[in-house]
Amino acid sequence: MAEKMALAKAINESLRRALDADPKVVVMGEDVGKLGGVFRVTDGLQKDFGESRVIDTPLAESGIVGTAIGLALRGYRPVVEIQFDGFVFPAYDQIVTQLAKMHARSLGKVKLPVVVRIPYGGGIGAVEHHSESPEALFAHVAGLKIVSPSNASDAYWMMQQAIQSDDPVIFFEPKRRYWDKSEVNTEAIPGPLHAARVVREGTDLTLAAYGPMVKLCQEVADAAAEEGRSLEVLDLRSVSPIDFDAIQASVERTRRLVVVHEAPVFFGSGAEIAARITERCFYHLEAPVLRVGGYHAPYPPARLEESYLPDLDRVLDAVDRSLAY
After folding, report:
1. Which residue out of 130, 140, 194, 296 is catalytically annotated?
2. Fewer Cβ in 10 A, N or C end of the chain?
3. How does DSSP assign 97-135, residue by residue?
4. For the segment 241-292, what is each residue's pLDDT rounded down to a tens digit?
5. Is 130 marked active-site?
6. Measured between alpha carbons, how far is residue 174 from residues 2, 6, 24 in Å?
């Protein structure tokens, strides 16, 4: 039942399955139809399901999300694509003041099962507004679920679960991992959407990450193993809610934690994790929780992004500092 496929292909197959299973599922966005999306994630879907199910929209992100809200009110399950991360901000008002609030505003009577797909993060040498990591901005808003897969199998199943959710889900897709391949079992029973997963067991320190940084943390663990250090790698998978129980269980075993994400460290999701785990694990920790991420600066031109993004050496440096306590 398992097939090796790229992360982008896994999302395509997941969308195809959802479109086939439920006539109320529609896919919308800029160039998602005839072009198949700039990353070809929706390639072939309009051809197979028609222009009324896979809809090419105007270049108007606020209108795209607003239309999806209207469709959801009429019983549809829209999946909208924001072409690049930095393009989401014209739709920010619709997402945070309407999409996130309608369930509470209606005292639970109205549900908005909308998935907002956002390719995010750097590493592809793109121009300005094409390499942002705005997940913390949305995680701060009550009423939204925020998830990010790190591999093809999670991409496939988390998309299925997001579409089936009656709550709005912001689905951050790590664009630099679109072409990474892994095994996908399309008949497997998935775990909960917001559950973290240990992808490598260790005893000396926990590396917690999500999306594009999980692969980097696995590479860090490999490098540390050559020096006799055993690092546990925890794929958080979800930024809101966060599986703090899984993080706590890991930290109680390893007694040290380094959180890694591409977004700036300042007011990033790692700050919330560090605060919560310090509260929960104060008597277990043998070092302060450390964070590795981007700098508190606008995303740089492509020729400088390697210096901006967390890399093997920066994460290993945090590991060294933690183990030095």
Report:
1. 130
2. N
3. IIITTHHHHTTTS-----EEEEEE-S-S---TTSS---H
4. 999 999 999 999 999 999 999 999 999 999 999 999 999 999 999 999 999 9
5. yes
6. 22, 12, 27
What's the predicted TM-score (pTM) here? 0.97
SS3 293: strand
- Tens-digit pLDDT profile for residues 290-301: 999 999 999 999
Pick the CATH number of 197-324 from 3.40.50.11810, 3.40.50.880, 3.40.50.920, 3.40.228.10: 3.40.50.920
| Joined tokens for residue 179 | 């072409």
- Residue found by looking up tokens 């997402």 in the block: 95
Q: Which amino acid is at 240?
A: S
In the chain, CATH 3.40.50.920 sits at 197-324
Total Cβ atoms within 10 A of residue 20? 11
Q: Which CATH superfamily is domain 2-185 in?
A: Thiamin diphosphate (ThDP)-binding fold, Pyr/PP domains (3.40.50.970)
In contact, 96 and 148? CB cutoff 8 Å: no
- Cα-based distances in Å from 247 to 34, 256, 281, 293: 43, 11, 10, 18
Segments of the chain assigned to CATH 3.40.50.970: 2-185
